[in-house]
């Protein structure tokens, strides 16, 4: 049981699927088959009766096909009928529980998002939504097959992505009824799939809507990820799609992560719409459709984003990081009668109330594409949607490795004790639920910084923004002095950064 428990990563399962010089594989076919039994037991205890139907898909990872075969073999051994969807996306696997032609009791996606090639993982959905942290704990602790009967299930190969793409196409057409079947015929839109699962979007969505997609790149699935990390939150990845948009003179560039639950865009002029900028664009869209709605974000968002959302008549709720956390906060607010239409992280995870609160990178792009023809008619650009969003003059992120066995205890102690620091111009921001956030005023310019624990790794993460030049370094030096009291907090990256000044 302990061997399985160590694979839990909040509401995901992740591990090493390919042995390297540095790491020994701990997510093997045998382990995945134990997880399959846990999923069966979880579905049964959740009240699902009768014959089980489960959909299984994977991203482009090198270990994907092998693990998928093992998963399907174990499921069918114990009477589960399986749809083998082959290459798929995480949002599509959830939709396999909603599309009437499949009506799966569960969707299982083999993916580890943007992590290195030797990783893989398991994401699980029921018809009610994504598995929660407690669900994963149950799955990993209930791999006992003694109560199950061996009864051969059927395997059906099916094309999920075509069905999923058709659904997106129909929604984009419905938003532009005067444009016919090809509302994007006047646009050149290129896709960077990062050799993950997102290449389908080029042909099955954009071309189906009439767009010119020439110049799209890295569409071929390749688990070696030879071109760049498939991650819209990665600087090199965004530079790659920026360069392609400008060289191809495209109207829009779209980039996905490996399993397409995250995305970002680059405008015709080469401006990047990710992080705060993407949140701002989507906020304007949902506030136009739902005036006065609330928008849940994770904590490391700019103060300027809050001002922007409030200027549009909306409300920002800054919450703790983790895509399930922001989604669950939005669900909770709605249950309490507070209309909340969007839950989104700066990493690019975005979930709309109208779309099952599913974090779906392709749906994010679909929402933008629904708007694009109208913007063109009005002579407006995507940039014009966030022209009023003030940008910080300077930003910096630093990650500190916690080199203690009980690293969480260390990290929390640092956060608790920095609250006692007494520096003129540093004031604790009470509107914060993760780590500690300080507002910065003279003599430290005008800005803020946030110190928080990483959700998945033994790290403290520091993010600093300032609207005046020259004040981030003095803040970093004060933090360096404070952290000198904690020898197990590795300051190498901060030291290197300051030595270059």
TrEMBL record:
Cofactor(s) needed by this chain: Mg(2+)
Single GO MF descriptor: phosphomannomutase activity
Coiled coil: none
Residue ranges constituting the Alpha-D-phosphohexomutase alpha/beta/alpha domain according to the UniProt record: 7-137, 164-270, 275-389
Protein's UniProt keywords contain Kinase: no
Keyword Lipid metabolism among record annotations: no
Keywords assigned by UniProt, alphabetized: Phosphoprotein
GO BP annotations, alphabetical order: carbohydrate metabolic process
Endpoints of the signal sequence: none
Pfam family, one: PGM_PMM_II
Domain of life: Bacteria
UniProt record similarity statement: Belongs to the phosphohexose mutase family.
This protein's name: Phosphomannomutase
Organism: Tetragenococcus osmophilus
